[in-house]
Amino acid sequence: MEKEERVIGLRVFLTTIILLGILILFAGIATYIVPSGELTDAIVNGKHTQIYKIIEQTPVPIWKIAISPVMSITGTNGAKIIVLILFILFIGGSFAIMNKSGVLPGILTSLVRQFSDRKRLFIIINVCLFSFLGSTMGILEEMVPLILIFVPLAYRMGWDSVTGAAIPFLSSGFGFAAATFNPFTVGTAQKLADVPLFTGLEIRIPFFFISTLCVVLYLLYYTNKIEKNPEKSPTYAMDKKIKATLNLDQPMSTDSINKAPIIWMLLCFFLIAGVVIGGTMVQLVQDLSFPLIALIFLLMGFGAGFLSGGKIKEVFAYFAKGLTDFAPAILLILMAAAVGYLIEEGNILDTILYSVSQASLGLGKEAAILMIYGFQILMNALVPSGTGQAVLTIPILAPLGDLLGISRQTVVLAFQFGDGFSNLFWPTNAMLLIAIGLARINYREWFRFILPIQLILLILCSLTLLLAVNINFS
């Protein structure tokens, strides 16, 4: 029984570790094959540009490849990795308190009662809400903890763990990619490309509605399919075991729900929303958003535990159990970060970027914009951070667009599409691994689920970029 209560299942954990190990090996080998180089800022004909030069080869030693997950903390993203680890642990401990103290089960019971006969409406409302938050505020990582609520809720609704993960994570992820006012991708990229901030809405807003509609229709199709035949779910076997431990056949309690901890949780969620909104206006708040949100989750958990009648010793015991359950997530985060660390240590990222930019010069505008889009998709596997990608690639791609006759607005759009949608695809994205790990889904199962809608959006993004090139989108 204890084995099934693990937040991240053993099978999911081991398969993910193997996959990441293979990617780390490939990244390490690449540092021996790909020439090392660097891009430096320069001014040519009065315009800022970057010049590439080959430097001495810097292959990463085998011993450093072996311990690269630990060494990743010493890289340029080391501070972010540490904050992410604390973020996950604090959230894990807090949700354990809210679950063990009965607060979350009470909320789930209430939601199931309200939407048991309106399941389709439940999907539509939540997909639209999460997609809107991702598109306007750049909320994605913050939605990951909600998977711990939506998976058991999906079980109660007769769905599977994939649906429980997809409602908050897929929706916010696609909204994040189909950004309208997302400050972390569109805002940063437009600033770096010298494009007026948050312009180009004549394409971005219609595309946001189209992508959101795709998620709604896909989830309605998927849930209808598994309701008719649960065995078509990629997680059927695991879900069957987990459901057996949840006593879903027992009638839900009709006891009144303690409103005090729920009110406290709502207050904390408003504070989190305040941090996110404040981050779009104040740089300091944006820089500290992850630590602040982690702290609010910590206060949420302990507050809910005490307000629900829990004793101090009990509440701290629940928190400790949550930390233990989420401990495997630390290794997943470190291994995912190791891939980017090795590319950085081998000084081959700038070489890859320069090579693609040079290859684009010999192409027509349509082929070039699709190549830039495809390159951004691949870059997202190496640099999962949207802001980090913008800083690396936009100073190269924006001037490249000028040479090719492609507007900088269109280059930003290609960056936005390439970065955003593949966040839910590449296993080097630590937050994706944590998200599917919390739902006890292994990467292969998630891949089976996500591939069809990713292909659909790949086609839609390509067509939108071709349209943007032909209308001189600016």
Structural commentary:
- The protein has 474 residues and is mainly alpha-helical.
- It has one domain.
- The protein has 22 helices and two strands.
- A two-stranded antiparallel sheet has the order 1-2.
- β1 (37-44) and β2 (47-54) form a beta hairpin.
- α16 (328-345) packs antiparallel against α21 (430-438).
- The longest helix is centred in the middle third of the chain and has 28 residues, at 201-228.
- The chain is globular and about 70 Å long.
- The N and C termini lie far apart (58 Å).
**Count of helices?**
22
Radius of gyration over all CA atoms, rounded:
23 Å
Q: What is the chain-wise order of helices and strands?
A: HEEHHHHHHHHHHHHHHHHHHHHH
Cα separation of the termini = 58 Å
Strand content: under 5%
In the sheet with the most strands, the strands line up as 1-2
Quantity of strands, as a count: 2
Low-pLDDT runs: 1-5
> Approximately how much helix is present in the residues?
over 70%
Which descriptor suits the 3D outline? globular
Question: What structural class do you assign from the helix and strand content?
Answer: mainly alpha
User: Main sheet?
Assistant: 2 strands, antiparallel
Average predicted confidence as pLDDT: 85
How many domains? The number is 1
